[in-house]
Design brief:
The protein has 468 residues and is of the alpha/beta class. The protein contains 18 helices and 17 strands. It has helices at residues 25-31, 50-57, 72-85, 96-100, 119-131, 205-208, 218-225, 244-256, 269-274, 278-284, 299-303, 311-323, 340-352, 370-375, 400-414, 421-430, 435-448, 451-460; strands spanning 2-7, 20-21, 38-43, 61-65, 91-94, 112-114, 141-144, 149-151, 180-181, 187-190, 193-194, 214-215, 232-235, 262-266, 287-295, 327-334, 359-362. Helix 3 (72-85) links the parallel strand 4 (61-65) and strand 5. Helix 7 (218-225) crosses helix 8. The protein is globular, with a radius of gyration of 22 Å. The chain starts with a strand and ends in an 8-residue tail after the last helix.
């Protein structure tokens, strides 16, 4: 069969496209499990040629990745266009948002939703459509029927991640020069584990993986790294240090195999504080940048997120990492209840600790999370295109123009062009980025620090402002 897998574009909203465009690892992963078929990945963020692709490729089966809430409407539009082209072609949706809120895809132009991991499900689905088998006998689906959606039994998760094939990155070969993370380019993303042991209220990851953690063996991790030509690799695990002995073994194998890459990883600060001896080993193996969810700068606010960590750990981890030359991307959550003094305190915190290029997101209750259950009655909009982490979907204490003005001041503090760092300077000198890309990044940077752009999005998306 000819199978077309699609990644929606990021053309709507401010979002994070100016900071990163990463390969569609989920699509590459499921494609790797159906290698006996003819598979094409269409990344609509880069190549917006859906109609032409449908005509030229003539797919027998279509899958759309909807991991992000902001992609819901685009996903439905893509499905509608496919059915308009050929109503007989089956269309299925998968990904984090689709799995946690399958009801958002109950419509005539979508045949069903894959709930949870897709590697095994895609094989069963393709086989059922190829042999005219019974789709409702396949576990882990929500099948759309005219009367009501039909939920099939849950599919057990993959027990041994080592058994999964290496993602089919060759299917994005023509796109790979367009993928980047900040000034990291050429760039790739991979996972060495799935799931998280913690239960943060705002997070959908542990929900998607049913609260379970599974890890690939160090040997399997090295095997995959060797297949990646790009210099920069981002490890998508929510906490790469959930098993420090495994992280140590991976670092040792990287050194033994003389692998020369630069790794960015995610970790909790308490893991670093508990085992600081892992940091110099990681640094020697090419781990140079770590993303840490600081979230809040006071203990009470942090505890309200069910983070089970402390501001003190954040501070201590910062010292440990910097002592070994590791760069830190600190993530902060901006509460809609922030007053001007709260913004000022956070801005000063960022400046005092020289936390350049921080991740700044507005508290957003994503469907399927505990936070959404707690706050859904307080939402001021249900327009999913505003659920991009940089728009307020909950009531703000400040007037909305003032809230966005203060929010953009945080960007100015953390993203000053004078703080792009040596890696950014080196990227510019190497001409790694084209002039057009640098111009677009500069324009996006200006857009991100203009509060009127945030306000305009509410109006454009049918959410009239109620200025108090």
């Amino acid at each position: 069969m000819k199978i077309l897998l699609m990644q929606p574009s990021q053309e709507r909203g401010l979002g994070f496209r100016s900071l990163a465009v990463v390969e569609p690892l989920g699509l590459e992963s499921i494609a790797g499990n159906i290698s006996e078929h003819t598979v094409k990945i269409l990344d609509l963020r880069i190549e917006n040629h859906l109609s032409q692709t449908l005509r030229d490729f003539q797919p027998d089966f279509c899958g759309i990745n909807c991991s992000f809430t902001i992609d819901v409407y685009q996903t439905r539009e893509i499905a509608s266009r496919i059915k308009s082209w050929n109503p007989r072609v089956p269309v299925y949706v998968g990904g984090h948002h689709a799995s946690l809120s399958p009801e958002d895809f109950y419509c005539s132009h979508i045949d069903g939703v894959v709930v949870g991991e897709g590697e095994a499900a895609i094989r069963d689905l393709v086989k059922a459509h190829e042999t005219h088998g019974e789709v409702k006998a396949i576990p882990g689906l929500v099948v759309n029927e005219s009367s009501a959606p039909c939920y099939t039994p849950k599919r057990p998760m993959v027990e041994n991640l080592d058994e999964l094939p290496i993602p089919a990155r060759h299917l994005t070969r023509n796109y790979r020069r367009h993928y980047y993370l900040g000034f990291q380019k050429p760039f790739s993303i991979m996972e060495t584990a799935r799931g998280c042991a913690y239960r943060c209220d705002f997070c959908s990851v542990w929900k998607f993986f049913n609260g379970k953690c599974r890890m690939k063996s160090p040997e399997r991790v090295i095997q995959e790294i060797k297949t990646i030509p790009e210099k920069y690799i981002f490890l998508a695990d929510d906490n790469f240090l959930q098993s420090v002995p495994r992280a140590e073994r991976i670092a040792q194998l990287i050194k033994e195999n003389r692998i020369k890459k630069r790794f960015t990883f995610q970790a909790r600060s308490d893991a670093i504080v508990r085992r600081p001896e892992i940091v110099p080993l990681l640094r020697q193996a090419g781990f140079w940048k770590v993303f840490i969810g600081f979230e809040k700068i006071d203990e009470e606010a942090l505890s309200q997120l069910n983070k089970h960590n402390s501001v003190q750990n954040n501070e201590e981890a910062l010292k440990i990492l910097r002592a070994h030359g590791m760069e830190i991307i600190a993530a902060f959550i901006i509460d809609p209840s922030f007053q001007k003094q709260d913004f000022q305190r956070l801005r000063q915190y960022i400046l005092d600790r020289k936390l350049y290029s921080p991740s700044l997101t507005i508290l957003t209750p994503l469907p399927g999370t505990d936070l959404f259950t707690q706050l859904k009655e307080k939402l001021v909009t249900t327009n999913y295109e505003l659920f991009d982490y940089v728009h307020a979907v909950l009531p703000t204490k400040l007037k909305l123009p003032d809230f966005y003005r203060e929010f953009t001041e945080l960007y100015k503090a953390g993203y000053a062009w004078s703080q792009i760092g040596w890696e950014g300077v080196a990227a510019l000198l190497r001409h790694t980025f084209t002039i057009s890309h640098l111009v677009s990044m500069k324009r996006a940077a200006w857009a991100s620090v203009d509060p009127m752009n945030y306000l305009a999005a509410h109006e454009r998306r049918g959410v009239p402002l109620k200025i108090r």
